[in-house]
Design brief:
Number of helices: 22
Shape: globular
Number of strands: 2
CATH architecture: Up-down Bundle
Radius of gyration: 22 Å
Number of domains: 1
Helix content: over 70%
Largest sheet: 2 strands, parallel
Strand order of the largest sheet: 1-2
């Protein structure tokens, strides 16, 4: 990577440089990460219908996207070493742009394999950006405030992740009453072909945004963070920890941290991906007054954004109980909870022991999923939505804990942690397989409960440096 984390007792010229500008640009990137990633939660049920897929087949949406993290993490590190941090970002944005443009022929031909290729390129581009951005943010200031900084960019990530499924749900599942009536009269194949075109304006707009952002990063000069001075205690601890180690994986807390990131991303993506399908499985014929008001309010508030893409959907109908459009609002609420949790977490992480807060949210996540499995209807659904709040500080705390004391192996350890994002490619298909072959979605949701249980273990014991 172009921005390795090193320990040096001697300040460098970059020590006195202001990092406010780079933090703004990193925040923009994290907004983009959230928007593109979380849109997959509505894209998955959308493609399930358009391409006539099973739950297991539709989960390939997440496998294609997050599988790129595993395949590209180490090559991305080597690319960044050759190209440099800034040119690497430009390349990552351009790769994403190509992936976004591929959605046009994919939608025109309604070819699921082409959709998956497009998602893989989007994932590959984001991987290149993530490998640099996460450690870069971690070292832009004192080590004691690393979790707080990661939380700040996490808020931007959460904002993008909250907005995109809400707008996407309105465009893909909302639609005007006239349009729905017209589509309902068409033969199945013609109706599916027409519905497939709804996704094109979204990804064409994304491609344009990526091109503009790539041009901005090409023109603006970013400081290279080659060395960040560490305090004497940190430097001494790292030097001691490095003794006799040949790889980052020789550090037990890093190896367990890789599994923690794997399970965290897996549970976060898995819950968001199957939230709509989980809601459908509850057979909710009548929504509560709170949910109806929430759906109506958000759908009206975001219709203006849908109009930017040439679509003016009517407010979502809540009289028929749970629908995919209602589910899209709840998916957005799930990610909104994550964003709010990170906003609240910024001051909390600077005042209280971050690890103890991690214990609390992991325990709560485990309880919420188990309680959801023991309940039915809207209650079961909202308990899963609340898990978004629990997910809020897991990444900002686990990532710094896992790279603590790695010293010269920090760069390698960061790459392994980014590779662990492949959990988002494996956990959802595992849930889809259980849903298809093991007794439905209720059985599949046992997996997120187990993921939270492991995270609780890491927060209580696995984080310890040995």
């Amino acid at each position: 990577m172009a921005a390795p984390i090193t320990s040096s007792p001697t300040p460098t010229a970059s020590t006195n440089r202001s990092y406010a500008g780079p933090m703004v640009l990193m925040t923009t990137l994290f907004f983009l990460f959230g928007a593109v990633t979380n849109f997959n939660d509505v894209l998955m049920p959308y493609l399930k219908d358009v391409c006539q897929l099973t739950d297991l087949q539709s989960s390939a949406v997440q496998s294609a996207f997050f599988g790129a993290y595993f395949l590209m993490s180490l090559p991305a590190g080597r690319l960044l070493e050759k190209l440099g941090f800034q040119r690497g970002i430009v390349l990552g944005l351009l790769i994403m742009g190509v992936g976004a443009l591929l959605f046009v022929p994919a939608a025109n031909s309604r070819t699921f394999a082409l959709f998956l290729l497009a998602l893989s390129l989007l994932g590959a581009g984001i991987t290149l950006l993530q490998v640099a951005a996460n450690p870069y943010v971690s070292v832009l200031g004192p080590a004691r405030t690393a979790a707080s900084r990661v939380s700040i960019v996490g808020v931007a990530n959460g904002l993008g992740g909250t907005i995109s499924p809400l707008i996407g749900g309105l465009i893909l599942f909302g639609g005007s009453a006239v349009l729905k009536a017209q589509l309902a009269q068409l033969p199945l194949e013609q109706r599916l072909t027409q519905e497939a075109t709804l996704v094109k304006p979204l990804y064409l707009g994304l491609a344009i945004f990526l091109a503009v952002l790539a041009a901005l990063f090409f023109l603006v000069r970013l400081p290279e963070v080659e060395s960040i001075p560490a305090d004497e205690e940190t430097a001494a601890a790292q030097a001691a920890a490095e003794t006799g180690r040949r790889s980052a994986l020789d550090f037990r807390h890093l190896a367990l941290g890789v599994v923690a990131i794997f399970t965290y991303v897996g549970v976060e993506v898995g819950l968001g991906s199957f939230l709509i399908r989980y809601g459908e499985s509850q057979n909710i014929s009548q929504l509560s007054g709170f949910t109806q008001e929430l759906v109506r309010g958000l759908s009206v508030a975001t219709n203006w954004a849908a109009a930017l893409f040439g679509n003016t959907p009517d407010p979502i109908d809540t009289s028929s109980g749970f629908t995919k459009a209602v589910g899209a609002v709840l998916v957005s609420s799930y990610w909104f909870g994550l964003m709010i949790g990170r906003i609240i977490g910024i001051p909390l992480l600077t005042r209280f022991d971050a690890r103890k807060l991690l214990v609390g949210v992991c325990a709560a996540g485990t309880l919420f999923v188990v309680a959801s499995l023991l309940n039915h209807g809207e209650t079961a659904l909202w308990l899963v939505v609340l898990c978004g709040l629990c997910n809020s500080i897991i990444w900002p705390v686990v990532f710094p804990l896992a790279i603590t004391g790695l010293g010269k192996f920090t760069k390698q350890g960061s790459s392994y942690l980014i590779m662990a994002i492949v959990g988002g490619a494996i956990i959802p298909p595992l849930m889809g397989w259980l849903a298809t072959n093991g007794g439905g979605l209720r059985v599949a949701f046992i997996i997120p409960a187990l993921c939270y249980a492991y995270l609780l273990f890491y927060a209580t014991r696995g984080y310890r440096v040995r």
